[in-house]
Write a structure and sequence with these properties.
There is one protein chain. By secondary structure, the chain is α+β, with helices and mostly antiparallel strands. It contains nine helices and 13 strands. It is 27% helix and 28% strand. Helix 1 crosses helix 2. The chain is globular, with a radius of gyration of 17 Å. The protein starts with a strand and ends with a strand.
């Protein structure tokens, strides 16, 4: 079903405070149309954050994923979606993976699940996904069906109390997010007007209602609802997220959008980062 694994295992990035236990740093990034021709810039952005685990969407160019993993010293798994693709890169060992998208017609783009094992034997489950785009009510209805399937697929982890993260480009806006359509792309402004002066917010609310935490909203609530990840030219919306389940708020030490370095040129999305202790 399009799953491929490769790369070399790496180390483990710890907290900058030596008195604290190890922290896992996670980065999620829409790399735009496979990232072809932009590997150096993408690597520069990712490497500067020193992540342990990286989720990539629009990762359909396998050679780019392989190149990035090699430069970062990470294992990786790649899953071709129904449209586009997702990949997970990790310094930790990747134990198993499932490429869900080709198995479920409700998923229009990509959904890759993978389990990584930390140096103490702890298991971490990740879902890397890309939901349907655009901001009309009809588009939100498509995303509602998609997220319903995603939540169904990850229900077993919630029932068993297994800590896991959902990350990627959800093409969705959070309920409390402040959006000025003048700061968004033309397509969003047009959808805003057709919807009657708003963009729908139901998909993220469904994720929160299922018990997930929005890492940035926990770690940096002020900027979470006033900052954007898309587009790099007009970042009027935050549509890229790292959601966690079974991980207490006190363990989410950092949640941010990366604007530094080559981030405004490497893709049309800014990456997001979460650090969990």
């Amino acid at each position: 079903m399009g799953i491929r694994v490769g790369g070399e295992g790496g180390g483990w990035v710890g907290s900058s405070n030596p008195k604290r236990r190890w922290a896992m740093r996670v980065l999620s990034y829409n790399i735009l149309d496979g990232g072809t021709g932009r590997v150096a810039a993408l690597y520069s952005v990712i490497e500067a954050e020193r992540p342990d685990v990286v989720g990539l969407v629009e990762a359909e160019d396998y050679a780019v994923v392989e190149d990035l993993a090699g430069r970062l010293g990470m294992d990786f798994v790649h899953g071709a979606g129904n449209y586009k693709a997702s990949a997970l890169l990790s310094r930790l060992a990747i134990r198993d993976s499932i490429n869900h998208a080709p198995l479920h017609k409700e998923l229009t783009k990509s959904l890759l699940e993978a389990t990584v094992v930390d140096e103490k034997g702890g298991e971490w489950v990740f879902g890397v996904m890309h939901l349907h785009a655009k901001a009309l009510e009809a588009d939100e209805a498509v995303r509602e069906r998609e997220i319903g399937k995603v939540l169904e697929l990850f229900e077993r982890h919630r029932k068993e109390g297994r800590a896991h993260l959902l990350m990627g480009d959800f093409n969705s806006n959070a309920p409390g997010q402040k959006i000025d359509p003048r700061e968004c792309k033309l397509s969003t402004r047009e959808a805003w007007e057709k919807n009657g002066g708003y963009v729908p917010r139901r998909v993220v609310q469904k994720i929160l209602d299922a018990g997930y935490l929005d890492s940035m909203a926990v770690a940096d609530p002020k900027n979470a609802f006033t900052s954007g990840t898309f587009s790099t030219e007009l970042p009027g919306q935050r549509v890229d997220y790292i959601f966690s389940f079974g991980i207490g708020e006190e363990r989410i030490e950092r949640g941010c959008i990366v604007y530094d370095g080559d981030a405004d040129e490497a893709s049309d999305h800014f990456p997001v980062v979460a650090e969990i202790n």
